[in-house]
Design brief:
Layout: H1 18-29, E1 42-47, E2 52-56, H2 69-79, E3 85-91, H3 102-112, E4 117-120, E5 123-126, H4 127-130
Parallel strand pairs: 3-4
Antiparallel strand pairs: 1-2, 1-3, 4-5
Length: 141
């Protein structure tokens, strides 16, 4: 077992295969549609039932309408049965770890919560560490 970067509780009884998850993100990145920015992105995550879901960014000539890789990942999550995200990674065109932007962290919070483990250049961290004081479904009740 390993501890998160913040020194909190161990991640899980069995360490996930971060290399395989990163490979899934790289495969997704290879299918990106990024003709305007030239910045392809892929993301992959484990789901609480053991599935792996992934997504890639899809740009649009109307720049503001582009979709981040995390959007595709969450769409695949829902399409394949829903569930909660448990582990997440994101890569750039070189296959290097890339942090989700603030908008995407908020999206991931909806489907993984504060305990979602993110692979970062600094090590494994919780989404709660990366998105303090998030807005979530619990605020709408």
């Amino acid at each position: 077992m390993t501890e998160t970067e913040s020194g909190s509780e161990p991640e899980s009884e069995t360490e996930p295969d971060w290399d395989a998850l990163r490979d899934a993100a790289r495969e997704a990145m290879s299918r990106s549609y990024a003709p305007y920015s030239g910045f392809p992105v892929g993301a992959a995550a484990l789901v609480d039932d053991g599935r792996t879901v992934s997504g890639c960014n899809v740009e649009n000539a109307s720049y503001g309408l582009g979709l981040c890789a995390e959007c595709g990942l969450v769409s695949q999550l829902q399409l394949t049965g829903g569930g909660r995200l448990t582990h997440f990674t994101c890569v750039d065109a070189k296959g290097e770890i890339l942090m989700p932007c603030g908008r995407c962290r908020q999206l991931l919070y909806e489907f993984g919560g504060a305990t979602l483990l993110l692979e970062t250049a600094a090590g494994i961290r919780t989404l709660g560490d990366m998105l303090p004081d998030p807005f979530g479904p619990e605020h709408l009740n």
